[in-house]
């Protein structure tokens, strides 16, 4: 499924234009989240939205992905009016944790067992709103999961204490060892063979009008 999703993401963005780097980095994560969480009852809150293209494809909008950035087409970001799976209308970065925390606290007040997850990038995490939300989340008892997508895809170089701390963590020996062991485990479990997803996508839809 991840290979098929990745292939169609490349094809659709090649046709319509838009952002595909962040989306390619969360293909497996998007599949896993929609498998583990009972969406749309459980809430997935994507920060910014560039990484939400796989989420859109997985939630019933595959056939309309080519209309992104066209008049009357899909929004390039999560949009509540577009799908019940888009839980928060994103227009600016660093808002996902605050929004998700509000949803989690509302669910708690209503006695709802709903789970809430915010997915935020390393660039967005450096903003003050994200820090405020993390501080608030640590003070209250809410069923909230925050996933850091540290893909080093910020517009400019990240600075500050958090960026420095994450750099130390990602370059530490325990993390590097765990990462390599994880890669080995995934490689051993992966079915051997070449996935023809890219070929099928292009045979089905033709060549994209724009180079990727």
From TrEMBL:
Keyword list (alphabetical) reads: Magnesium, Thiamine pyrophosphate, Transferase
The protein's matches in InterPro entries, at most eight in alphabetical order, are given as: Dxylulose-5-P_synthase, THDP-binding
Subunit composition?
Homodimer.
For activity, the cofactor(s) needed are: Mg(2+)
Magnesium: is it a keyword of this entry? yes
Name by which UniProt lists this protein: Transketolase signature 1 domain-containing protein
Keyword Amino-acid biosynthesis listed? The answer is no
